[in-house]
Write a structure and sequence with these properties.
Rossmann fold, single chain, alpha/beta, Elongation Factor Tu (Ef-tu), domain 3, 35% strand, 299 residues, 6-stranded parallel beta sheet, binds flavin-adenine dinucleotide, 20% helix
């Protein structure tokens, strides 16, 4: 049985008009499910996704869609934040709706979005459903506490692929780095690759965190299509692919090597378009570079 609870649309911030929005859905403290009232508990692990039922502009129906959470349940319990981009695929349905004025009207009218929860009868609580409960190569659920501290994470995000890593940063910064956790705080490099400056998500906050915690966190914003003349970080694609006359695809990772010179000693995490993630993996294979661990997720 699938249980759904209506969440209030609290934020629909335009990041790039018609392209990317920051969405916040706020769950009630308790909900009536199957005739009983249950307190709602939010224990989502960073790097996991929740399931919601937004409207599909194309199909004119409610659809079930997964969204990776970008904030942390430990900082903001019950507030499900994510970044949603218009996919521009011919079948695009809900991703267009989120960018539309209709979504703004729903927010204004106080119309909710259903979010999936799991009922635990024995404990008498309902918890927010998470898409994954195990760390695997094909997902980005953060390793359990006591494990991630040993890692040197290099997280490469393409576009809204930054969402799981934003959740890592919020969890690690506010829960661990700020308290200088005993036994180590690991290290995280975040590479955020977007088309132009306006698409950078939480840019100022990430810059500040990198300044505040230089021993634990490095932030590398990359602009691929256009950039201000005085842009202080990287520009152009860090991973370049070109098709040779033979039809073979040649991958050039020199931009990536320049920003992170020792990829073979890191725990590589990738998120974003299938094509970009595949090209990066192929480039590493061609150069015989084997990071300590690799985990990736594409939508
Ligand atoms: C784990 C996970 C996390 C994600 N996190 C994010 C995120 O943080 N931000 C973000 O923007 N997107 C995220 N996505 C993608 C998101 O769920 C949507 O797929 C995306 O927003 C595009 O939605 P869409 O409705 O426009 O198009 P699509 O989801 O591509 O759907 C288009 C059409 O394809 C068909 N279709 C889609 N799925 C199915 C299916 N399973 N079976 C049959 N037909 C189907 C339907 O006819 C639908 O109308 C995530 C996906 C997954 C799996």
């Amino acid at each position: 049985m699938e249980y759904l609870v209506s969440a209030r649309i609290a934020q629909l911030q335009v990041i790039d008009p018609g392209e990317i929005r920051r969405v916040q859905l706020v769950l009630p403290q308790e909900a009536e499910i199957a005739g009983r009232r249950f307190p709602l508990r939010d224990m989502m692990r960073p790097g996991t996704a929740f399931l919601a039922r937004p409207w599909g502009s194309r199909t004119e129906k409610y659809r079930r869609r997964m969204y990776t959470r970008s904030n942390s349940s430990s900082d903001e319990p019950g507030v499900l934040e994510t970044f949603i981009n218009h996919t521009h695929r011919p079948q695009a349905d809900t991703s267009i709706w989120w960018q539309s004025q209709t979504a703004d009207e729903w927010k204004k009218a106080g119309k909710g979005i259903d979010v999936r929860v799991i009922v635990n009868e024995s404990q008498g609580i309902a918890t927010v459903y998470e898409n994954t409960v195990m760390c695997k190569e094909s997902n980005l659920r953060l390793e359990p506490d006591g494990e991630w501290e040993e890692r040197r994470l290099v997280c490469v995000a393409f576009g809204t692929g930054i969402t799981p890593f934003l959740s890592y940063v919020h969890y690690l910064a506010h829960g661990k780095w700020e308290n200088k956790k005993r036994g180590g705080c690991g290290h995280m490099t975040l590479i955020a690759s977007v088309r132009h400056e306006g698409q950078l998500m939480f840019h100022q906050e990430l810059l500040k965190l990198a300044e505040q915690f230089p021993s634990y966190f490095r932030y590398i914003p990359v602009l691929t299509r256009s950039w201000p003349s005085d842009w202080p970080s990287y520009t152009g694609r860090l991973i370049r692919a070109r098709v040779l006359p033979s039809g073979e695809e040649q991958i050039d990772l020199s931009g990536l090597h320049e920003s992170v010179p020792d990829l073979s000693h890191c725990d590589l995490r990738l998120c974003g378009s299938v094509e970009a993630c595949q090209q990066l993996m192929q480039g590493l294979k061609n150069e015989n570079i084997c990071p300590v661990t690799v985990r990736k997720e594409s939508w």
